[in-house]
Specification:
The protein has 227 residues and is an alpha+beta fold. Helix content is 55%, strand content 16%.
Length: 227
């Protein structure tokens, strides 16, 4: 019969696994993930150009970076844990609708940063995050891209059509008719693609005040109402 010593009774597998990784390296990785996530937080806040700013979504980017780094640290030291973690994470579904495509970019940036921090590629994640942040700030805030507008006018009298087009031509640098439709009840709808002069959208009020005009809506190509 094999003799069991007193130390063997109190031997813990948890203590053995604790000694298999460096606490200092783990803390450094988590701290770097936090500061990179904080950098992503400020870049997102600086470059946000949507309709409604979500502070909770921005905070989740920091947590996402740190949580991803924590997962990578855990699975990198244990093959069985990595297989179990893959199976557990496969049931996770992100069900919050993403309205702005740029939000997906920030989510992917936070996840990639967490992976690199957990794997120990600290210089790579720092340099990469600085470059990505600079590109986002320059292209979103500094470079101005003129987007055309869609003007949708509903009216009930064909005689007002020439007046509408006259106001559009006087108030825009370039315009074109995208569609025209006749609806039941002898109502009409025309859609113009317009590049306005000096972002002056006041002419839409003149159109809406015309007789027989039921509605006039200015719509940007990204789906946001501007009037």
């Amino acid at each position: 019969m094999e003799n069991v010593s007193f130390n063997d009774i109190f031997k813990s597998s948890i203590l053995e696994k604790t000694s298999s990784f460096s606490i200092v390296d783990s803390l450094i990785g988590l701290l770097v993930a936090f500061f990179v996530g904080l950098f992503i937080y400020f870049v997102y806040k600086k470059t946000f150009s949507g309709v409604i700013y979500s502070h909770t979504f921005n905070i989740s980017l920091i947590i996402m970076s740190m949580a991803t780094a924590l997962i990578i640290m855990g699975i990198s030291s244990n093959v069985l844990l990595s297989l179990g973690m893959v199976g557990a994470l496969s049931i996770v579904r992100f069900r919050t609708p993403i309205k702005d495509p740029m939000d997906i970019v920030y989510i992917f940036w936070a996840i990639v940063s967490g992976i690199l921090c957990g794997a120990g590629f600290i210089p790579l994640v720092v340099i990469g995050s600085i470059l990505i942040g600079a590109v986002l700030i320059i292209f979103i805030n500094k470079i101005k891209i003129e987007n055309p507008y869609l003007l949708i006018v509903k009216y009930s009298d064909l005689n007002v059509e020439n007046s509408i087009e006259h106001v559009v031509s006087e108030s825009s640098r370039k315009y074109s008719v995208k569609s025209k439709s006749v609806m039941p009840g002898h109502d009409y709808e025309v859609t113009y693609e317009i590049r306005v002069k000096d972002e002056d959208l006041g002419f839409i009020n003149n159109i809406s005040d015309m007789d027989s005009v039921k509605s006039a809506v200015m719509l940007s190509y990204d789906g946001n109402f501007t009037a």
